[in-house]
What does this fold into?
Amino acid sequence: MNFDFSDEAKELGEQARKLLAEKAGTGPARKAMAADAAAMDAALWKEIAELGWTAARVPEAHGGLGLTVEEVAQLAEAAGGSLAHVPLVSTLLATEALVLAGTEAQQAKWLPGIASGEIIACVAWSEPGAVSPATVKTVSSGSALTGVKQPVADLAVAHVAIVAAAGADGPQLYIVDLKGAQTAAVETVDLVRRHGKLTLDNTPAEALGNAGDYQDWLDRAAVILAYEAIGTAGAAMAMTVDYAKTRVAFGQKIGRYQAVKHKCADMYIKLELARAHALHGLAMIGTNGAELRQVAAAARVASLDALAYCAEENVQLHGGIGFTWESDCQFYYRRNRALVAALGPRGWWADRLVRALEQRNSAAA
Amino acid sequence: MDFNDAPQEAEFRAVVRAWLNENATEYRDPPPEGMKLPEFIARSKAWQAKKHAAGYTGITWPKMFGGQGLTPMHSIIYGQEESRWHVPQGLYSIGLGMCIPTVFTHGNPEVVQRYVPKALLGEEVWCQLFSEPAAGSDLAGIRTKAVREGDEWVIDGQKVWTSFAHASDFGIVVCRTDPNMPKHKGLTMFIVNMKAPGVTVKGIKQMSGGSDFNEVFFDGVRVNDSHRLGAVGDGWKVALTTLMHERLAVGGKPRYAPGYETLMKLAKGVEAPDGSPAIGASDVRQKIAQTYINDQGIKLTQMRALSALSKGQVPGPEQSISKVVVAKTMQDLASFALDLSGGDGFVAGADADPELAKLQGSYIGSAGLRIAGGTDEILRNIIAERVLGLPGDMRPDKDTPFNQSVPA
It folds into this structure.
């Protein structure tokens, strides 16, 4: 049995956590929150590209390192834990779509630039009024799209968008070159990560795979985002535990009180459940496992549960100071909303999990 | 990543499987209902003797104690293969899993020679006498006392929640030998003969109606000092050896317990408030998803631990979450499913639907599982203190002599 990350993936994760602990974290996140701050940390992005993180998943034929989704997961977790102000996870999600469903020509056009860090990619499925990745109203007319996409993470700095729109067989992915596209900033609850509005008005677009590929990409995106959520949740838990070890009330460290320590234990329990499902997701992606649909949905739900709990109880266990603007608690609390919005709500994914279980049962019957 | 055996593991599994196919044929079907204790003991002893002869007992124990000197992975593989058969389970799990490793770690050579081989062969059954009416979660608060008289110790007191005491020949018992010391320091562990004069075993009838546990009374029971395990006053340290072995027994969902599949099946035949099948109702689907995430998540967490063992590494602390998740999930699922079934879920006995009766059993049994082997609350303390490094609870009685301790 080998149900664990490869040593190579662990090493890359170690490198990523080390660099981001130094160059990112709540300090830089606070600076990024200022209204006049840049939409990304360009110096950090340059360093990330030089280290080959954006090249990790790109095939060697297109200038990448041809690594596995395990490396992608390690990077996403490190990004999530450090709140790094770079479009890393957006680019990784878009890369996964191009690697999964792109034609040779599409890959040759976009992947070398992504690998070198010169091209930043983002993902746009969300729409006004849309509650899930299944309900998109943006329409395709063969070679162009019309509709509105928002909120789109990292749109302001991206050169290309992977867009979900209604195709002939249901929702599917398209590639939209953002040169000359109609974009605007959108204010969101997350004050660090920038989001935008992409208005498509008969905008040229190329189909990226088919409707089935979109569903497969959703599974992979759910697993990658689960790791970002696990990273963020883990950072919120660590912040709570540190505080519980030092804050004194009624003559004791508050971490001695069971009302406090049991919440910390529950954070850990939810995180480990999320890790178990997310790792299962990586195993299924790596082996083209038939159970990926249910496993990815479980990873998505479990990771959102862990993040919501850790982010919310982190504020609560800090007490009044946790509710101040100066406290770092708000970063995790707000990022929780960003990661829900990134791929649709918990309820939709829980339902997707049950649908997958039903299909497996009827296939077995 | 894969879930496959490593080559040597696959080889061992094949050998075990072939041996079981040859030797476990009489356990192909579940045992007859309502088997009496003597028959259960006879079947257990016969199976243990067969396993012993083939070298499948004491798999991880050192060879010098009659074990096979193999790895935890070998033991787990044997267990996985054996669980495909309905061989008698449980009679030896505490004795061989916890008591005897304590005996061979802390006993003198004569005692080891006298007791370990017969226990491994299954000739003699062992029980563990730790909990007391006033010392459950707070195990070091035990009051059963042992007083030295020459070469002997005289034991008086009461133990409780002792599995298989009524079937046991011997037990390990932790006693207070010095009440003038703080509570963790005045304890000593002994081997006690369960058939000795002064030992009385009484079954406890549980909330479920079953009787899996006993009360054990000690009234002037005499034990020779040669049967002491570890130094006088080291009983707490010795007990921790025993409990460490308990922790290695992984606590997944009990085999009989209904899971998310039960709810999926049930919800197809039950109406939601609007008259449509309940399987379409959002709350039902959310509960199915949550149950899957919890139960499957624990299974996967255990696989992470097995992967570490398979590579010869020490598993991480993550498996400490197992029982606290599994027991409450079992209770929540049973409660939800019985709610959904309305009055039918409440009718018991001959008129009850068999699936619903199983859920009722799970609902009642899970209340016990949330307490047994560490309550939900104690397990959360352990996760917070040992895994996350939070400070321990305030223990006002920790440093005061046991006999002067006054509740804060």
